[in-house]
Amino acid sequence: MSAAEAARPWVVARMVGAAALWGGAYIAGRSVARGVPVLTAAALRYVIAALALLLVLWVVERGWPRGLRRHAWGLMALGFTGVFAYSLCFFAALHHTPASRVALIMAANPSLTALAGALFLGAPLRALQWAGVVLALAGAWVVISDGAPLQLAGSVGLGEALSLGMALLWTAYTLVGRRVMADGSVSALAATTVAALTGGAALVAALLLHAAWVPEARAWPRLDAGQWGAMLYIAVPATALAFVWFYDGVRVLGAARAAVFNNLVPVFAVLFAAALLGEALPPAALLGGLMTLAGVWLTNRTTHAG
Question: DSSP string covering 214-225, please?
Fold first, then answer.
């Protein structure tokens, strides 16, 4: 057994962990989105996340990797797609649309990633893997719709458009990251750190410009202890840690297979809502969760890179 094959179960476990952390972020994001303006919330998230990632990078890799300059444009693209634009869409979508509907639209990301990977990276999926993508997406749909998926076909508004934008941006972030890390000169930790720094700097600059033009935006929002806790959760485990785990999965599993784990996010969101908020756990959530797990397993059951 090669070293890559031996490490694969741990990579899969971390990908499931990243999905769980992101599932919790939807719940935490509701609290933050209610009391903090979109741009402020996005900037604060990545200021905290970038500081945490810088500390970890310095401890683990003892400085900046040598390959950063070679991949400067790709790393800046990561900061724009996966940090700056995605974070704005995330908090704005939660302002306009229920978290469950946002998660449903984001569940289309694995199919978008697989299609884009086949078109641009020459990484087509086999028939069984496509079946896994479809099964995982169907399971996520069952979870979010509470067993009545046709009832979700209501009106499409700004929140839905922002959610679709999130799915497209995350597809770009995944594929660009795959290309940046292809030669091994940039680790998942380094790529995530630089993306957080560049995207976070752009968010802070946008916030300062907004405050200069809009006097009402200069007032710092008052966060209670719960909202600060939610923001710290979103910034550190659900961003700094989960993004590194996800990019390591992209490196080992390939972009298309790694993206399938995003279908677990709404499943975890429903489970956490039941455990933390006392919401009922409907039978459809259990059925859809099993379907999603089966789809993720089916898509990742072979050892060929995707």
Answer: -GGGGSPP---H
d(CA 262, CA 276): 21
pLDDT in tens, 164-186: 788 889 889 988 988 888 888 88
Q: How far is residue 267's CA from residue 103's CA, in Å, rounded to a whole number?
A: 9
Alpha helices (H) in 36-157, listed in sequence order = 38-61, 72-78, 86-96, 99-106, 109-120, 127-145
Give the gyration radius of the chain's Cα atoms.
Answer: 19
Give the Cα separation of 11 and 6 in Å (integer): 10
Dmax over CA atoms of the chain, in Å, equals 62
pLDDT digit string, tens, across residues 52-105: 999 888 888 877 777 788 888 999 999 999 999 998 998 888 777 766 667 766
Identify the three-state secondary structure at position 116.
Answer: helix
Q: Give the type of residue at 158.
A: L
Helix axes of 188-213 and 86-96: crossing angle, nearest 10 degrees: 60
Those residues of the chain that have pLDDT short of 50 are 1-3, 155, 303-306
Contacts of 4 (CB under 8 A, 6+ apart): 252
